[in-house]
Amino acid sequence: MNPQSLFSKFSPITKVSEFAPGMPSMLECFATWCAPCRGAIPHLAEMSQKYPGVYIASVSREEEKVVQTLKAKMPQMSKYNVSVDKTGTLGAFMEQQGVGGIPHSFIFDKNGNLCWQGHPMDKECEENLKDLSK
């Protein structure tokens, strides 16, 4: 599944940028109850500011009101795209990729090819974003 069709299925809570075809992107899977996911929020906000040419979005499979409650407590979530998945698309994509744990990020190049996946706090995550933003 290409990133454009993935992102189009999610319901935005915070929208700071638009995904455009030909744009590198990062999909971060998270949950509000997940302490490592909450710990990654300031880092994601920083990366979003640092690499504006990369579409960065965090997506949760939880109810919108649950994510809104966390957003109210963590204002950094207003600095990058945050969405909820009401269609089951995120879970199906994660399963297809053999991923069961969160937080987990997928980075796509400008052609929509998956070029990296792993923990959003890994050094390689930011290295890939830096390379793709050039």
From TrEMBL:
Pfam families: AhpC-TSA. CDD domains: TlpA_like_family. InterPro entries: AhpC/TSA, Thioredoxin-like_sf, Thioredoxin_domain, Thioredoxin_ResA/DsbE_sf. Residues 1-134 form the Thioredoxin domain. Gene3D superfamilies: Glutaredoxin. GO terms for molecular function: antioxidant activity; oxidoreductase activity. SUPFAM superfamilies: Thioredoxin-like (SSF52833). This is Putative.
